[in-house]
Known about the structure:
CATH class of the domain at 62-86 and 102-291: Alpha Beta
Order of helices and strands: EEHHEHHEHEHEHEEEHEHEHH
Number of helices: 11
CATH topology of the domain at 62-86 and 102-291: Glycerol-3-phosphate (1)-acyltransferase
Strand content: 5-15%
Amino acid sequence: MVVGGKDVEAVPKEEYLKPLIFHDGRLVCRPTPLMCMAVILWTPIGLPLAILRISLGILFHLRWKLSVLRFLGVVVHVKGTPPPCPRATGSDTSTTTSSSSSRRGGVLFVCSHRTLLDPLFVSFVLRRPVTAVTYSISRVSEWLSPIKTVRLTRNRSFDANTMSSLLNEGDLVVCPEGTTCREPFLLRFSALFAELADQIVPVAMNIKITMFHGTTARGWKGLDPFFFFMNPRPTYEVSFLDQLPLELTCLSGAKTSHQVANYIQETLANSLGFQCTNLTRKDKYMVLAGNDGVVQQQPDQRSKLLQHSCSNTREISYKLY
């Protein structure tokens, strides 16, 4: 790098005055002439490959999706033991079930958030359908998703009822950070999920990419899956941690939702080797995009009422790590 006519070496990340947590842009590496040439040469190959990966990932049955993606160069590492289907275990009348198993029809998977594809890979690894809840997602991603996605409204009581109903129907995946983070940090967890279930399984999600970032704050989110799958050999790491003990939950134990959220955030961070922060989704989008990160939609009459209700609801801040 040339500064003032002199060659200056780039400062390593570990020597920055402040840690680098938020940044945007699609390129993983610095746009050196060699890197730019590699991107130009790879894009005519990578774009059709991404379309093929997404198309076959949608068309094939859940039992075969993971095998198809692996055949197309997507590396998936699975650690831990995924929990069995609750309905299958609950059907055995000879086995004594806990009160939590009878109370809920599904497991609540709490994931660290690396890309919009996190719930998809959880479903692919489990080989059964799950439902994902999200605060904001592009219509393209919603349309392409092979699993059920449900939009939340930021109305706390309404969202709690929605998530509770979805849990009664089956497995649910939540990402309490509310947005993705590229660096080895976990953003502050929202504690709402902890009030809804006692069958909670933390899932540590991580990715390894070499060319394109599959997330953006200022760009068009509908292209995020395409950019992720445009990488020559993208890698997803899915680690299922031990289910949360009942005594550490809100419903069966004596813990508050804040304590549960703190514990899971710290557990996931330790598993990934990441660092917990107090930074939120709003902090990220205010830094990178100058807004609060909410995708504006054309509201119908029902959503207008919900938005009005949200505007009169005080925002609750949680003391997290």
